[in-house]
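User: Hi! I'm a student and our assignment asks us to look at how structure tokens line up with a sequence. Could you show me two examples?

Assistant: Happy to help. In each example below, the sequence comes first and the structure tokens follow. Example one:
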Amino acid sequence: MMAQYLDIKAAHEDALLFYRMGDFYEMFFDDAVAAAEALDIALTKRGKHDGSDIPMCGVPVHSAEGYFLTLIRKGFRVAVCEQMESPAEAKKRGSKSVVKREVVRLVTPGTLTEDALLEARRHNFLAALSRVRDEIALAWADISTGAFHVMPLTPARTGAELARLAPSELIVSETQEESLRETATDLGLPLTPLGQASFDSTAAEKRLCDLFAVRTLDAFGTFGRAEVSALGALIDYLEITQKGKLPLLQPPVREALDRVVQIDAATRRNLELTRALSGGRAGSLLSAIDRTATPGGARLLEQRLSSPSRDLAVIQARLAAIDFALDRDRLARDIRVALRKTPDLDRALSRLSLDRGGPRDLTAIRDGLSQAAAIAALCEDEDLPRLLSEATGALTGFDDLTNLLDAALVADPPLLSRDGGFIATGHDADLDEARTLRDEGRSVIAALQKGYAEQTGIASLKIKHNNVLGYFVETTATHAQKMLAAPLSDSFIHRQTTANQVRFTTVELSDLETRILNAGNRALDIEKRLFEGLKAAILEQAARINAAARAVAELDLTTALADLARGENWCRPKIDDSRAFAITGGRHPVVEQALRQQGKDSFIANDCDLSAESGAAIWLLTGPNMAGKSTFLRQNALIALLAQIGSFVPADSAHIGLISQLFSRVGASDDLARGRSTFMVEMVETAAILNQADDRALVILDEIGRGTATYDGLSIAWATLEHLHGQNRARALFATHYHELTALAGKLDGVENATVAVKEWQGDVIFLHEVRKGAADRSYGVQVAQLAGLPKTVLDRARVVLEALEKGEREGGATQKALIDDLPLFAASPPPPPPVKPSPALELLDSVHPDELSPKQALDLIYKLKEAASS
């Protein structure tokens, strides 16, 4: 056995080998040590090898999926080695023969299909990146749903597209592994290198033609050599990991670079589109707007949020569908009720195609197609917009299949086909007979005994059973003579005579005994055969079922976004090819929701107009920290993004010209692992924006130039703003604390000043969260520091230094230096502040008891307060 183990392990050195031993998967040697530590299970030993103990650990087969998930998340790959025959079959070759075993599957992050290993509401993409001479292409697939795509790339867009897809695993050529490692590390992508032969475009083309049973790929589109190479490498990897059993992939869909908005990794992170900065889903835009009822709808929402469209016709069609759902509120609610009962068709179909499915996948297809037909019936007499009409058209035509599945399957089947009991009674006569014999053997024997008693006229005749004879007919010696004589002797065969009884058998009884003994196994065999037949019937219509699943997701997303728009009072945006960007009453969807959940004041809405017609495509935003500048920047970027996924937006009105790129430089963080300071990270991200943004881009920048000397930072921010205005010509929101930049609004035609309003009251700052035209006079940094809880001695000292610096700046550099030199050193115990003169108005109020005032006394009090305040 150990020789067999070592041979199999030698072929899968980069994976933990789960070696099947009866009801357990066992691991040995270094695999056992690594797995025991990763899974926190006991490490023991079994036998010796070269004189040393062999480390061993194991996990039960029935709970292996949970262990797979733990290992995958910790960076391991798993080779699943199954027994290909029973021990009894192995013994036929010799008493010491080892049971045949083979690796049937490699479990890797990008090749998961089981529900227990996947997030139901997220895609799980496997991607392959290829370079053929000067061409670059990226292919990706989700084998749990069958999605299969490819697109050409430029070097500058590679990181952005990988960030958009966030694949669980990235396949690359061994020759490119090192050059891509830094990008993969930045994005947190596991790299899987393959030999160069897997990326050979000629072999890849043949591989694809064989998979889809076509002579040429022209029917699917025109693909470059790099695209074919990436597609073929992905298929080759699936053949390796699935051991030749390929998933049910849809024909490859080619995506064009100019069909989606370019959003780089930094922007996705800063805007928290699908993941919050903390790393979880909670707090992200996706979490705030997701009201989908099905896993497929949730995956479609995330896909669109990651890939906003630049196709005006597509966006308008989606908005029209939401408009319809809002107008037909009752119909939309009825559709959502049906959607909540709809299982995940895509993933059930994928598991069946890979022989990983069970009876519940059959019922998922049955129930999903039944609900699809119910949804189509709801929409039958409706004048649907084109998008919804196409979707509902894909939901019908499955009557024969659903009738077959409905007749064949029980309502609530077991998880595994080997458990049996999932085929309904009455569907198959042979199965019913086997079950009757298995479950009601005694009653069948009793009926046969009654028949024999009537045939022989011997009322005391019994059918009994023992381990030697099996089933037999028993009667007394007196009655035995009758059965030994003709004509009964032709039917009853003598088996044994005892002191008081004589035992017989019959051909019928022997046959019944055999059938009773084999009934359990026979019933399971029949159910397995029927399972395969039902699976084949489903897979014959796989393409149409996939189309139905996409239609269900489309209807789900449309009605979910309509429900969101209605519940949150969102408006339909006006989208066109202009350079307009006019938002009235815009709100941040995530912050607004969070405020409501905390029971705080409602969100303060603000306008933003970056339209060319307004004369200012760039707003220079000033104001103190904590006033809401970053929120204002982000909310306008999110409104634009939501509009281009085809959603209503959180605003009173919105007119947005199509955006080609979305860039965000908001927030500060360092990258110590790569030796980058916070300022360096900021400069790298800013450089990417200035080098890539075109005149249809939307850019939001916050505090460019911080992290270095004041004048260095100011000069960088100044030059950046000029470049955005003169070279990129992008629509932009530029927040800064450098008030000197506000002078540019008078020099650059396309720049306008805006500020977040605050109010100062008795030394404290009150944030109004209102964005107004104009520039802030100062940053209120000391007041914000006071709110943060800095010690009073520090705040007092800061005010003294600030006053000296501001006075010196007004009077010139030399005067400023002299004032700074004259400042006394920081005192641990500063002199007490001068006493504050009491306010007569406050003293008067202290003496008043409001509950005791009459209306006339209250009016007199107001006059007294006014007189005291003016004194």
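Example two works the same way, sequence first and then tokens:
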Amino acid sequence: MKVIIIQPPLVQLNTAYPSGAYLSSFFKKLGHEVKWYDLSIKLFHKIFSKDGLTKLFNLTQNKALKLAQTARTSGDDNTFSNLMSYLSQSQAWINWIDLIINILTDGTNYSSRELCHRFIFSPDAPRGMRMNNYLENLNHEASVDDARFLATMALADIADYITAVFDKEFALIRYGESITVSETSFSQIEKGLSSPVLTEFYKEVLEDVFNPTSGLHPVVSESTNQKTLVCITVPFAGTFSAALYTGKYLKSAFGDSLFICAGGGFINTELRDCNERSLANYFDALSYDRGYGSYIDLLSSSFLNTAASQKTTECSSIKTSENPENKPDSAASAITNDRKLYKLKLFTLNQTYEHTDVNPDLQKLEDEYTASLTPDFTDIDFSEYPRVCDDINPMQRMWSDGTWIKAYLAHGCYWHRCAFCDTTLDYVKAYKPTKIQPLYESLKTQCQEKNVYGIHFVDEALPPKALTEFALLNMSEGNQLSFWGNVRFEKVYSRDMADFLSYGGLLGVSGGIEIATGTGLNEINKGTDLNSIVSACCAFKEAGILVHAYMIYGYWQQGDLDTINSMETLRQLYAAGLLDSSFWHKFVLTRHSGIYSEWQQGLHPELKPVEIKNAGIFAKNGLHFEGENKSEKFGRGLNIALQHWMHGEGLNKNVGKWFDFKTPQPNIPSDLIEKAIAIYEKKRDENFAQPVNPDKAFWLGGKLLTMNNTLIWNYKGELFEERIPSEQKTISEILWQLNPSSENRKKAVSQLKDVIQKNPQIQKLIKKFRGRGLCVL
């Protein structure tokens, strides 16, 4: 069978989203012919190219002139000058766009380094407002090294023009965008399918890839009795409109030869209870959660058999007023079974055929695939993806300045109890670790093939044991890979463990603090405390690992003082050097969250959800609650302060001064974080003073050199010296062989045991290497 996997736009510029890679691996393991298309990057290149900008300016010149005239008449000189600048420089933008893209894709099309000098300094190169602001605010003289930043600003400038005069819904990244579908009917969403970017540019992408007039197209199965299965991944709200447009185009072009199914994060969270029959114009089914079980069930049914379209068999369904007797219409004629499919809901114009979430055999198979599958990026050309730089902050820059291969160490979250999280859904609650050895081997091979040596783990929270195992495998292979991902800030991340992970390739971590106060952490059932959070951050920073924190404000029980106290704690974390970057999110109550589930059980009487009745709602996960808007006033000040703190500015400023309204004074101790750091340092030093277990000891430092009974070595950029008794000179060779990549490590462990057994006092010397190259897990 042929399987087509499609990622609609727009998700991320710098890499491919991983759902397609896992589905590719899954269907190939079942023996099917698979092709994965990332249409997100194809749309990007369709617009940001010489032909694309030529078309864009031709389509928009008249409108831009009218808007400019209106702006001048109303006295808006800034808008007038910006629009006229775009139009006057239109040919320059067209001439330079391929070079701009080439700079951001590391010169994969032609050498660009020499032309970068001209891009930076030539007065004839195009300039937009963001580019000019960047150059004007440089704290150094502009050089060719600024080319990537300036090229990133160029993309943003063009995107601003598109939004202003062509398509107000356009954005370079729709990663976390909300289209407030919780208050939108499906008919309103359908109107968005006529957006200019979709009709003028994305349609061309679909025609380029799936041209139905080119004879026997790869999308159509050669078997006349079997449909091609098309899987459209919809990870976020911002990709839903493009997914609908994709489904409608394919249905129009290929008709009943395809069976189109949509799945992914947006489908799982927002459309679990969706019975919108109009979806039949776009999709044949919605797949929930991981999808493996539902597709196995689908493949074993007759729904993909074109011969079944001649039959008209009744099946169990939701009764509708239009079809009270459940008689199938012509669109439902392919349905030949009288059973519900596992986590797969089918749609026809007259009926919605419900699914079942219970099938122990399929659940078991799904868990087995989850543990064994490794993502397959065969169909992805990573050289097409731009590595953009929109901030000098090192952690912020790491998100996008690199084409990371995405994978996960475990499905779900090993804690899965945070009150604000969708803890009743599979992607959080169904914790299933993967097999690390085959995952590492597969990723290493693909990194070598693709010439991309960075891994972004997309786990809800990286399991510490699996992370350690992955790092050890990487060490044994010469540390070929670099990786980063989301963790829980817990005390398990000691200095030893952080040193080990750092040596093994861990570049940075992101983690949720959410409410940076002790009582707040308890109220949201975070499962950790402030001292543990500080301890983990201290260990990571001492080990040279970048740290990002997620923050949330506007909780149902949170008052103004709680918000200010959380902000003050965050300020102290920055002032202590424990964080590199952060992001504030506003709390959203969801139907699948732990707090909502507890509220349904009679808990949290202070939470008062507001149900909107008879509003024609399409997606139903997001909920309103009484008092949710009272915290909105904090958003601007929180973000302004954060932007300064992430660049080392304003760290001593009273947190209340970031707002244009009066706020309570924080009542947490001014040395709260300092005291927590002192607790960490005491425990770290106590741990370093413990006897060393040779089985768990690893040498991570440089080669130990002996000079006059003194050992000299480098660790993390610092040169250390330690006097040793002359009879213990062999200790240097033993320690060196404890390196994780050493072929003689087992022998060195045995030798160290012998040395300690013969002379227990040697432990005193060995302890002096702790935190200076010797790590004990």
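Here is something you could point out in your write-up. The chain is about 40% helix and 15% strand.
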